Amino acid sequence: MSDSTTPTPQTSPAPRAGRRSAIRPAGGQTIFSRMTALAAETGALNLGQGFPDADGPDAVLAAARQAIADGANQYPPARGERTLLEAIAAHQHHWYGLEVSPDTDVLVTVGATEALASAILAFVEPGDEVVVFEPTYDSYAADIARAGGVRRTVPLRFPDFALDEDALAAAFSERTALVLLNTPHNPTGKVFTAAECATIAEHAARHDAVVISDEVYEHLAFAPHEHMPFARTPGMPERTLTISSGGKTFSATGWKIGWVTGPADLVAAVASVKQFLTFASGTPLQHGIAAGLCLPDAFFAEQRAEMAARSALLVDGLTRAGFDAVAPQGGYFVLADAAPLGVDDAAEFALRLPTEAGVVAIPASVFCDDPDASGMTSVLRFAFCKQRSVIDAAIERLVDTYGRSARTT
Description:
It contains 13 helices and 13 strands. With 409 residues, it is an alpha/beta fold. The strands form 3 sheets. It has a 7-stranded mixed sheet, sandwiched between helices. The protein has a 4-stranded antiparallel sheet with strand order 9-10-13-12. The chain has a two-stranded parallel ribbon with strand order 1-11. A hairpin with a 6-residue loop joins strand 9 and strand 10. The radius of gyration is 21 Å and the shape is globular.
């Protein structure tokens, strides 16, 4: 899709019903729940939802078991278990040179999901505007709507997902309260560059906006791309909240252990909201994630290399099946355009894919207010955070189903 025009930023305070009606029933079931249910009903291989299908490191699991045996089974402190607070602070310093106090600058949450909700509710008043990058993970829109905020979207266009500086500038106004960034980005796999972060920072500072940087895939930026925390952008440490979690890094998505780091006053504002959501949870699991954050650097390097290899495997397979697949720069997902297969509606195609090919994927259009603006109408998201045998089997099914027609098109 051409980059020659700059779409008007969206200003709808809630997700548009029309774009999701094909895959989200009136009761509000999410696309992830719907597609996971289809996988179970049809026996299809689930490359839709982004959860690993194997356990994480033994040291992480053992630490949680030991914490249970040691009696760490009651409420933790509201800010989090001390061992995890210190591990998060040490992690930020070790990997990024960020000085974070475990006493005032860290808050443990129930996954990144609660961290995001708490932060958005803390800093968005009714009518405030939030700059987001589209495609946008769906909980962002829901949280902004709950806070009474207005989304102003900046499209990341398939297939290169470059930052459109004109669209970015147009998204800011005197009502901008928050910028919501995700890097590495779900679903595009984009890793924002230092130059792009500097451009975003310039606008955020000019409009006195807080930046929430969702960095749950921080250890899954694939070479030659490198993850740079937005908080390292010059002038941004004092106005940036960084969100991450242990679920993606340690293959423990069901544990729901996340965190927020940043300036003490901003973290305190998030804590004031979080205390009335869950207060605290996962005491022994916090010990497990703390052990994970202290693993040797080699663990993170090996995991990153393995996930990059699985990504390449899936991209190659989707290409052989006739899709126009884009190699991600990081994260868990590959975006692939089904237009070469004659598909012009990814949402409809995703619903028949499980029975037609025995594979589940997510239509990228559900992450967009305007799929046309981002070139996502015929694009699907496939997860590669699965065992290689599962990826191989999914590729075989897709190639068998669509590869022949692709070769003769």
